[in-house]
Design a protein that fits this description.
Bound molecules: NADP nicotinamide-adenine-dinucleotide phosphate
Radius of gyration: 24 Å
Strand order of the largest sheet: 10-12-11-13-14-15-16-17
Number of helices: 18
Length: about 475
Amino acid sequence: MPLVDGVATGPGAYVVTGGFGALGLATARWLAEHGATRIVLCGRRGGDVRLSGVDVVVVAGDIAEAGVADRLVAAATADGLPLRGIVHAAAAGDDVEATWRPKVLGARRLHEATADSPPDWWLTYASAAALFGSPGRTAVATADAWLEAFARWRRSRGLPATTVHWGAWTADPVLDSMPVAEGLDALPAVLASDLPSVGIARLDVGRAAGLLPRRPFFSALQADVQPSPAGGTPHERLAVLFAGLLGCPPGAVAPDVPLVELGLDSLTATRARAAVEREFGVALPVPLLLRGADLDDLAEYVTSPAEPVRAAPRVLREGEGTPVLLFPSAGHVALVEHLTVPCYGFEPLGPERCVELLRTVQPTGPYRLGGGLLAFEVAVRLTALGERVDVVVLVDATPPATPMPPYPGRVVLFHAEDDAALGWAACCADLHVEVVPEDAEALARRLAAELAGHPSPGATPVSTLEEP
Ligand SMILES: NC(=O)c1ccc[n+]([C@@H]2O[C@H](COP(=O)([O-])OP(=O)(O)OC[C@H]3O[C@@H](n4cnc5c(N)ncnc54)[C@H](OP(=O)(O)O)[C@@H]3O)[C@@H](O)[C@H]2O)c1
C-alpha cells in the first residue's frame, strides 16, 4: 500500500463531507491521486464528480440528520473495503445555528456512525478563526474551537482525530492566501503529525499584529521573527531571486541591463512579481518589469515607500493570455483551478482603488472581471474611462442600491434568487442569467468558461425574465 510519510493513503475507502465544496473536493482529488479505491462524497445537494480510477459514491444528505453518516459509512465499507480516512469539511453559514449544524452536529454523527468501524485517520476541517479570533466570525470560531476540543476528547478514548485550522485558501484581510496545491502539500505532514490540532496558514506576522493589535500571540511571534535568511543588500537579494527565475548565476544579472534583455518574458515577470512580494512585501507592477526595468530600478522600487502589501492584487494563477480579475477573490478557489489564463484576486477595497490596482497587473483592456457587486462597479468605472470590458461574471451578487443608467457591456449573472436577477436587469443593458448549478464544481467550471470567453448556451437573456 502506498504510504505518505507512514500514513496509509492508498487503497481503501474514504469519506469526505462537504465533498463538493472548495476544500472537500480538493482533498478528494488529492486522495484520488494517492491511490484511494473509493471516495464517498457528501453534501446536502449532492453533485456529479468523477475522479479517474476511483469509485466515487455520492450520498446527498444533511450530515447533521440522523442516518446520513450511517449511509456514508455503509457506502464506504460496502464489499468489505476498509475505511481508511474521514475528512469532515461540511460547513455552511455565518450564524450560530447554520454553522454549528454541519460542523458540530455533523462531527458527532460521524463519531457515532464509525463507533464499530473506526477509520485509520480522521480530519476535521476548521479555520484559523479559532486560533486567532476573527472579528464578525464568532460562530465559526466557536464551532471550530469545539471541533478541536472534540478531537482531543476522541483521542483520549484512543480514537484518531486531528483538527486542521486552515488559513485562507483565498484572499483574506489578515492572512496571506495559500495556493490550493500548497494546502494539499501539507496533508502528509498533518496525517503523520498525530496531533489533536494543527494550524496551517500563511501568516505575515507584522500585518496580523497591526490588524489584530490586541492579540498578544502576534506580538510574541513578532519578537521571535528572525530576519530573512537571504541577507545582503536589496541588489544582492534581487540578483539571487532573478538568477533563480532566469536560470543563470547571480553574477550574470547585471544591475544596469534591462531584465527583458536577460530573458525575462511575461510569464517570468508574473512569477517574479509573486517572488518579490514574498521576499520584500512589495508588489512590483508587471509592466515596470516588461518595460525594461533593471536591477537598479527594482532595488529603488522595493526600498522606497510602497503601498501596503495587503492592498496588492494576489496572484491566484500564473500563465499567459488575458487575465481574469476577481473582486473580491474570496470563495473562488475552485474556479481558479479551472482557468488556463492568469488570475488575480483583489481585496474588497473601493472601486476607484481597485481600478488603480488592476492597472498594475493589466494596464489596458479588454478586461474580464468576476466576483460580486464590486466587480460590476469596477466595470462601470473602466467603461467610463473608455476601456473595453469583455465580460463581467457575477455570482449571487446584490444589485446596486441606487438607480443608474444601464451598463452597456455583457454581464453574466449566476443567481439563486429570481428577485436578484430582476434587480440587475434594471441596470444592465446586456444581462444574461443562469441559475447557480447544484454543485460547486459545476459552478466553478461554468464561471471559468464564461470568464474565458465561452458564453453559455444555457444562459437566459434577461428579456425572458418576468416580474413576479
Ligand atoms: N475555503 C477556505 O479558504 C477555508 C479557510 C479556512 C478554513 N476553511 C474550513 O474548511 C471547511 C470547508 O470550507 P470550504 O471553503 O470548502 O467550504 P464550502 O466551499 O462552502 O463547502 C462546504 C460544503 O459543505 C456542504 N455542506 C454544508 N452544510 C452541510 C450539511 N449540513 N451536510 C452536508 N454537507 C453540508 C456544502 O454543500 P451543500 O450546501 O450542498 O450541503 C458545501 O459544498 C470549513 O470548515 C471551513 O471553515 C476553509
